[in-house]
Amino acid sequence: MTIIYSIIAALSSILGALLVLKFHHWAEKNSLFLINFAAGVMIALAFIHLIPEGIEANKDAPFYVLVGFIIMFFLQFVLLFHPCHDGECAKHTGAFSTVGLSLHSFIDGLVIAVGFLANSQLGILTTLAILLHKLPDGITISAILIHLRHSKKKVILISTLTASFTPIGALTGMLLFDSITQSLLGILLAVTAGTFIFLSAADLIPQTHKSSNRKVPLMFFAGIVAVMLIELLFDIG
User: Fold this and answer.
1) 120-147 and 152-175 helices, crossing angle to 10°
2) What's the total number of domains in the chain?
3) For the segment 85-113, what is each residue's pLDDT rounded down to a tens digit?
4) Which letter, b or e, does each residue of 180-214 get, where b requires 16 or more Cβ atoms within 10 Å of its Cβ?
5) pTM of the predicted model, to two decimals?
6) Residue in 140, 159, 145 with CA at minimum distance from that of residue 39
7) How far apart are CA 216 and CA 170, in angstroms?
8) Angle (nearest 5°) at CA 107 between 165 and 13
9) Which residue of 49, 79, 117, 175 has the lowest C-beta tally within 10 Å?
């Protein structure tokens, strides 16, 4: 059941990617709108979802948010740094976004496994919460890749790869259940939040300067509202 439900959650992410690809020409033409939406989703997930849950599991979570941010900063601006102009750094943006969202998917799988190993009702409720979050995840990664002018085939491949980390995380959670403490889960959630904040602030939001359309930044707020509505709907349920 754990693996089946984790696959269903992964399919929700793939569905989000396919929705963007369905309207590929519109998405390509309006990629900056989608990039800002993706930035809003990442920031909102970090502050509304990941950090609060991280603190609940581990009181030191804020420190690990900083650790996640510093890790991404070190990788991008120290370890892999080289001067670049215009679109030469685009590959790094896509690669780091893929890594960040893959880590998020992996942790989602761990959470599903922990829920089902506790009891089936908690597992189903946990999956429902994650299922609702995965749709904007898929939209986010595909929007970033389309903005970077990747082919449809590559967008589908990377989106599927990112989503596949959910069942991988679930399987890992089943095999290592006794080793996954609440404290460790809190650290993982916090580190993911740090990576999301970095990706949104350092890579995605700066893309806004490429457009003179004042409506583009409004999509950042739309991404935040989307996550807030999903959280609200789940709380009501």
Assistant:
1) 150
2) 1
3) 555 555 566 677 788 788 888 888 887 88
4) beeeebbbbbbbbbbbbbbbbebbbbebbeebeee
5) 0.68
6) 140
7) 37
8) 50
9) 79
Residue 129: the pLDDT is: 64
Please count the CA atoms within 13 angstroms of the CA of 10 that sit on its side-chain side: 25
Write the CA distances from 175 to 2, 92, 96, 179, 189, integer angstroms. Answer: 12, 33, 28, 9, 20
Q: What are phi and psi of 127, to 5 degrees?
A: -60, -40
CA 157 to centroid of chain Cα atoms: 16
Q: Which residue has the tokens 């989608």?
A: 34
CA–CA separation, 20 and 22 (whole Å): 5
Place of tokens 């590929």: 24
- Beta carbons of 155 and 13 less than 8 angstroms apart: no
Which domain does 221 fall in, by range? 2-236
Owner of token pair 């696959």 = 7
Tell me the DSSP string of 118-139: H-HHHHHHHHHHHHHHHHHHHH
Structure tokens at 25: 């020409």
